[in-house]
Amino acid sequence: MNPNVRSSSARTGTPPFHVFVLGFLRLIRVQNLLIIVATQYFARVTLIGPRDNWPSLLLDTKLFLLSLSTVCIAAAGYIINDYFDIKIDIVNKPERVIIGRYLKRQIAMGAHQALNFLGVLIGFYLSKWIFVVNVLSVTLLWFYSSKFKREPFIGNFVVAFLTALALIVLAVYYRKQVDLLLIYALFSFVITLVREIIKDMEDVKGDARFGCRTLPIIWGLRRTKQVLYGIIAAFILSLFAIAYLLGNEQLFWMFVILLIPIAWLVYRLFRADTKRDFSYLSSLCKLIMLIGVVSMAWV
Length: 299
What we know:
Blueprint: H1 8-12, H2 17-27, H3 30-48, H4 54-58, H5 61-84, H6 86-92, H7 105-126, H8 128-146, H9 154-174, H10 178-202, H11 204-209, H12 215-246, H13 249-271, H14 275-294
């Protein structure tokens, strides 16, 4: 075949179908969506229960729809976030840019709108309160991507809150074991908040170039680290205060175990000063989150 002759897809700029699919799956962070589903199902079985009836819980149609609505809105959020951040991501993470490379912008925005509509529609079918939560999530994700992400702290707070909502919706819908669900929602909120601030420290170069006003940019790395120390200290005190007030000994000892990776996080944060260091800390936050989720089985 003549090497100078291109395929029709190359001439028109349309990628092969498999490239399109893989690009779309990367765009919506399919691995993160699977983690959301696994977390909700695991919380449903371990925290809400009854645990001895777990096979039927896994086949619960309402749980499936609740997770599907959460996943649809989260996927739409990833799309709109990447849509607004194309220029910044070219500097910070050029290998992860999907929109404009594998997917046309019109297709990405169409998928964003369709996923949001489906997520909100499912929420409306489940209950008026899930509908309200889903509409709130869609709204926050839009403003986060278009504005809040470039402002100090508020963008980090919004992402952390939206992460916690994945467990809060279970409390809203099932109205059982609300205390435990909210404790784990608080845990996911704080760890995500810490991780988001660390990611801002990792991406400070690209963010500064495009006019973002994140905490590391306006305060510097040293003062931002001090903020993180304060958040982590308040978080640890809150966890043990909650365990004491609930009189839950298992919860208390689970928090003691979690002190080990959290202490390591603080130590590495104190020594961190390069992009690679902050990338490691971001991954460590993911590990702490995983340990927290798994701990639901022993609470």
